[in-house]
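Q: Structure for this?
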Amino acid sequence: MFSTHVTKDISAYCHGELSNEESKQFAEHLISCAKCRAKFEEVKLGMKLAEQLPQLSAPDYLWRELEPLLDRPNEIQPVRSTSVWSWQMKAVAAAVLLLVAGWGVWLVYNNRANQILAAKRAWRVTRLDGTPTVGAERISKNGELGVGEWLETDANSRAQIDVSSIGNVDIDENTRVRLLETRPTEHRLELARGKMSAHIWAPPRLFFVNTPSAVAADLGCAYTLEVDDQGSSLLRVTSGWVELELENRESIVPAGAACETRPELGPGTPYFEDASSVFRQMLKTVDFDPDANTRSSALVWVLDQARPRDMLTLWHLLARVNGEDRARVYDTMAALSPPPAGVTREGVLSLDQKMLDAWRDSLETTWMGVGKGVPKPIAEAYWKVKNGMSRRLKDMMPK
Amino acid sequence: MAAEQLIDGRVIEACQQGDRAAFQLLFETYKDKVFSIAVYSSGGDRAVAEDVTQQIFLKLFTAIRQFRGDSEFTTWLYRLVVNACLDERRRRRRLLPWGETVAMSNPSEKKPQEKQYARLELAEAVREAIGELKPKFRLPILLKYIEGLSYEEIASVMGCSKGTVASRLNRGHSQLAKRLSHLNNPALWGE
């Protein structure tokens, strides 16, 4: 079913009409197929637009006009075009009595309907350890996390959340998370403090986590995200890609890399976790130290320690430093991995977006763990196998 | 879904026995959803939609004695709604001069271009685009987004397969996206 394109299943996937296995296979195909991804974006936009359709309110007088006609059901004629005012007058007394009686019953049922609606927009929560809570309710085995509700764990409790049909999130001890939104085109959590591990098999940008200092947008991956009491966070990606963003600042973090964030400053520069400790410490200074001279001095250390694999970090730094510092970053990058044809020093230093993107595209294969020059489709396939994204590809590999 | 939970067998039975309060409960429960579909199906003409809504409930009232519970009540109701909307559309087509369609909004009320991307304009633009879709693409979208029906329920209402529903929704979404591609602006969506 999924060996060919999956465009016909896009709406069904987003509406949760596919089985878990079908959803996973769908997502795997989508990640590797540009054509289906483009169609997915189109259908997703259509769905977002359709979600804007408001339910309208019928005018109150409809019942008053309708009610007298119930005694003469054969008179099914357009009501607007007939004079019904006299019938209204005759029916007012009876309608008022009925309204009063019916209103009480309706309120009860309506309240029930609202509860059911709210429950529908909820995620299943499973206790892993201790006694997590949702609002004031203690979760002894399973529970539900509705939109707007907080899930909290203490020092002895952990929980797992099923994210609709697209993955799950493990909630560690001393963590506080809230469900902000769940609909076919967007699932969003807020992590106020603590630590969570997400395993998502959805196409890019369906699952988001808000933290006090950035928004993590899933690009099809697994990762851990930790927020401390000051609102700073640490993202560590174990497979796939995650994008961190705050206003106009964004960092793209691949598997094996990490990125810190700070309130008001947003995401820092991503780095591979196997970088030297000096490199990581100096990078933190470049990202977050308030003194410009200190940042500039730390940048020298970062550039001195950089390996070809650290082009990930250097590429992000290009747009975050100015003047001579940017020129130093460029020169180090060019020495480690010369830019592709058409990308010039002048263009990069003036932050020409096309040139920056072209250079990043040429580097992405190395960020995936394969050498530069390997065709991207092959690199992506390799990367998926390495990161456990495709069982079928894995099965095809020689034992 | 909520509406099914709200109206249980006792309420239906009371309606079948002519209980006016039960029927009012039924009306109050479904009137907004029925009215919404009628508005979106009639090109935004609220007066026509009011007529259609009342006719649907009158038909419901007269036919409810024949409801035997072979299918879900909501399926039965929405079949009435879909048929009434299609009938109304056919009737209005006959009345309108060739080539004329009912505009969703009065052109004189159009907002200036610079406000086109404002959030408040979005819903209006979507309503207009929905009104321009063919009924076979529009009705599944309305049943999904206004009524919250599953694919299986929509299939039952429309008398087609789940696969056809999936396909029509897909095409409906694509057509909406193409018609309103100018609204694909992250700022508009608060992203």
